[in-house]
Amino acid sequence: GTPPARVPIPTPHGRCWVDGSCEVRPGPEFLTRSYTFHPNRLFHAYQFYYEDPSCQKPAHSVLMKGKVRLRRASWVTRGATEADYHLHKVGIVFHSRGALLAVAERLGLSQASQDCARRLPPAGAWLPGAVYELLGAQAEQDCAAALGFTMHELSLVRVQRHLQPQPRAPSRLVEELYLGDIHTDAERRHYRLTATAPLQSASHVHHHSHPCLVCGLVSHADEHHPPVLPPPVALALRLQGRWVSSGCEARPAVLFLTRLFTFHGHNRSWEGHYHHFSDPACQQPTFTVYATGRYTNGTPSAKVRGGTELVFEVTRAHVTPMDQVITAMLNFSKPGSCGGPGAWSMGTER
Ligand SMILES: *[C@@H]1O[C@H](CO)[C@@H](O)[C@H](O)[C@H]1NC(C)=O
Ligand SMILES: *[C@@H]1O[C@H](CO)[C@@H](O)[C@H](O)[C@H]1NC(C)=O
To answer: Under a CB-based contact definition with an 8 Å cutoff, are residues 237 and 308 in contact?
Structure first.
């Protein structure tokens, strides 16, 4: 296709961006982030990791400093900019001896990272507040990457503004920073995009009217004072009813979608509509999935305290391609193998 026209793009520079809630990533990992982009392309980023899914027990904090250069408008994700980054320094602070042991154990698993494990102190010599360098002037090997601390999410950047409705108050202008990770093969033919949760601009969090309590906590934190989030309100699980996304969701691997679920408690069946989009404003539809099935009674989770584990079974699924590319892709499947006989067409559910 033709590359997008050159228009001035809002950049993340000159501001601090923070998480508005405790982020849960596959693993599971629990974290909050605070990224500051200086006007001169330099950035410093904090990633605060926790032991618990409420982000109340800090485990370790990672500080990264580097340089990011916005390169060109992305032709994969509309409105986004591809970027290059370079890390100058990565340091880690452990908030408990147990956190040090957990990280050292991860490093000890592979031969390549065992040299990095030597950079960390033995558990007995751990000093609260000490910063251990994983990458930088003194570090001859990149131990940040060995531990999985990277900033690949800076390869795709998008700043978005939208009006957020508020109960009993005028709508508030919210600025969000979407970051993504682009993986390409050598010929740049196949892209795999993963998006992280959006960060919010922290420029107004000092203002009393700012409704984001967590944003304020995260923006005032540093590697020695990780943010401790307020305890979640425990509610009994009542799935029954209809649940909708409060906005366009950015999710790792899936990218952008909105979801609508209906749970029928009396016969333990569920229905879900997954509307997928190619852009972070959820305006360019790609395909929709409608799925139905049954679910089990919940049992308290052993892994995630306060969580409930349920098993969802899909008994029927319908797909509606919403753009030419997806339609053509489905059309390439062996005739009759997917969606019954006949060809797929845009906007038709099968
Ligand atoms: C369960 O009940 C809902 C509404 O009462 C109905 O629409 C749905 O088809 C039922 N599902 C099954 C699997 O019986
Ligand atoms: C899908 O396949 C049919 C039959 O081969 C063809 O007529 C149609 O143009 C195809 N559609 C797309 C979007 O590729």
So the answer is: yes
pLDDT of residue 62: 96
User: Measuring from atom 14 of ligand 1, which residue has the nearest CA?
Assistant: 267
- Spatial separation of the C-alpha atoms in residues 61 and 73, rounded to whole Å: 32
* DSSP output for 235-254: ------EEEE-SS-EEETTT
Task: Say what the pTM is.
Answer: 0.73
Ligand 1 pocket residue status of 141, Cβ below 6 Å: no
* Domain extents in the chain: 15-219, 241-331
Rounded-to-integer distance, Cα 37 and Cα 175, Å: 15
- The response to whether residue 292 sits with its C-beta less than 6 Å from ligand 1 reads no
CB-based contact 348:311 (threshold 8 Å): no
Mean pLDDT across 257-269: 94
Residue nearest to atom 5 of ligand 1 (CA): 264
* C-alpha 41 chain-centroid distance: 23
Looking at the CA of 316, name the nearest ligand: 1
User: In the prediction, which pLDDT does 175 show?
Assistant: 85
**C-beta 268 within 6 A of ligand 1:** no
Residue of higher predicted confidence among 296 and 279: 296
Question: Which ligand minimizes its atom distance to the CA of 342?
Answer: 2
Pocket of ligand 2 (CB under 6 A): 324, 327-328, 331, 343-344
Digit-coded pLDDT (tens) for 28-87? 889 999 999 999 999 999 999 999 989 999 999 999 999 999 988 876 666 788 899 999
Distance, in Å, from the CA atom of 130 to the CA atom of 267, rounded to the nearest integer, reads 56
Q: Measure the CA–CA gap between 196 and 179, rounded to whole angstroms.
A: 6
pLDDT in tens, 290-303: 999 999 988 888 87
